[in-house]
Each structure stands twice: as C-alpha cells, then as structure tokens.
Amino acid sequence: MSATATPRTLLLVGDRFVGFAVQQDVLTVSQFIEEMRLGVYSWDSQPIRVRAGQGVTVDEWELVRGEALLLGLAERLDFDFRAPDLAGRGEAHKHRSCNTLIADLRRDGEDLFSATLRVHNDNELLIDHQTGEHVQGMVAVEAARQMFLAVSERYHASRYLDRSYYYVIESLNTDFENFLFPLDATIVYHTVRAELDNPDRLSFEAEISLHQAGRRASITTVSYTAFDSPVIEAKEHRRARSAVEHAVRTASPAATAAGAAAAARQPVLVGA
User: Fold this and answer.
1) What is the bridge-based pairing of β-strands 201-212 and 215-228?
2) How would you list the strands of the sheet with 26-28, edge to edge?
3) 163 and 157 in contact (C-beta within 8 Å)?
4) Burial of 64 (0-12, 13-18, 19+ CB in 10 A)
5) Short-list 37, 87, 32, CA closest to 61
C-alpha cells in the first residue's frame, strides 16, 4: 500500500446481508469478488483497507485474499481479519459452530463480563428470515441466551467440576432500543444476583446488553437457575409423562366427541 495516499475503507459482509450492502463502502463477499474480477480496483492506485463485518467466514476471507493475489491487487488491498475465538459447544449449548453467537468471552470485573457478537452467514436464525438492512431481533435474544449460558458455564458452574448443569429460564424480557446491523457489536453481561453456595442449584439474575456504534441496541433481563442434571432430568421426565398421559386421555373417542360438542357451541377464533 502507498504510504502517502489516503486509504479508503471497505466493509465486507456475508452474502446473507445483501440488503445492508446498499450502503456506500459496504459489499457482500460475492459482490467484492465480482468487482475485483471486473477490474473495478485495477484502474487507480488508491489503497483500500478491507475489513470484515458479520457473516464473513475464514474460508471466504481466504478466498477473497486469494482472488486479490491472483489479480495482482494484493499490494493495494490491506486485509485485516482475525478468526473469532468462539465459545465452546458446552458453553453456548450449540452443536454446530455456525450457530454460536458468542466470541472472545472475557471477564471485565467481579460482576461484569463481555464478548463480541459473531453472526455466521449460515446461522440458523438467518436461513429462513433476513430482510432489510438490519439483523433480526431474534439474534439479539439468542445472543443474550448464549451469553448467560457461556458466562455461567465458564465462570460459575466450573467451580463444581463433578457436576453437569441443566439451565431453566424463569423469566426473560428483551427491550429493543436501536437497529442492530451486520457489523461489530459487543455483548455485556452484568450480574444482578448470583447464588452459588448450593452446588445442586445455582440461581442467577442478570442484565445483558448489546452495543454497536456507540449505542445500545437491546437489553435483556433474565432470571434463571442451573440445576444439577440428575435432579431436573427426573422432574422433567415426570412432567413429560404427565403431558403424554393427558394427551392420550383427551384423545380418546369419548373425550373427542365431548370436545367437538363444546366447540360447536362456541364461536371460532382464528389467531394471527
């Protein structure tokens, strides 16, 4: 890159975020590769900083760099990409890494933790719903859920290495304050209450906020309990058995006929 020319910054996002690429200085991975092949960056010598937003994978980043090298653009393009340090499968409670939203988890204080948001192009929440320029709100909700799991698993449940915990949400509420876009964002976990003395039952309240571009995009308040797995699994199994027995009982011919007669006497309501 030239030491004297003023560099331009170009932001790359995953192809799933093509709606966001209407912004100046934003391109999807496929759009950028196509422009390089068409010679868009070959006619002048202005240096370009290429930075990755959300949805750009390591493989895609290597593909972009390889294409630039092949086309003789490597000297003009300054690539800056660091693979995220994802929360582990047992921390985020996700089997597929493309669905993990928490990266670079760290402890910033006694009751304060933070992480970077990482949204894979093939995340489960994007595959069947992604419109407009912003990232859908359910990503913020799921990021909050994964954040409290990761913080609890890494920094609290780890004190009882002989235990395996099952997490139960008692309440969860999210307020959305600003749009979230497919760029860098930070997740902050603030402990409101943590009861950790009884290894059979760890109880928590927390506030989890999502920040981007100097603004808070959302805040989630949550209360949850981590139960020793054998205890809650037995209770869950009993409740499941009860639900099955109820379903079988109400599906009997007599119960079905009674239900149909009752329904005939009531107006029919159709949900949205």
Assistant:
1) antiparallel
2) 26-28, 8-13, 48-52, 77-80
3) yes
4) buried
5) 32
Residues contacting residue 186 through CB under 8 Å, at least 6 positions apart? 114, 115, 116, 117, 210, 211, 212
Token reading at 128? 């069947």
Q: Using CA atoms, how far apart are residues 212 and 180, in angstroms rounded to an integer?
A: 7
**Average pLDDT rounded to a whole number, residues 196-218:** 97
Question: Closest Cα to residue 29, out of 1, 45, 8, 51?
Answer: 51
- The stretch 198-215 carries a mean pLDDT of 96
- For residues 93 and 238, what is the distance between their CA atoms, to the nearest angstrom? 24
Please name the residue that has the structure tokens 């799933």.
Answer: 16
* Block residue for tokens 């027995």: 245
- Residue 68's alpha-carbon distances to 5, 11, 55, 71, 79, in angstroms, are 19, 15, 20, 5, 10
Q: How confident is the model at residue 266 (pLDDT cuts 50, 70, 90)?
A: low
**Residues 188, 151: contact at Cβ < 8 Å?**
no
d(C-alpha 178, C-alpha 210), whole Å: 10
Task: Tell me how far apart the alpha carbons of residues 156 and 234 are, in angstroms, rounded to a whole number.
Answer: 23
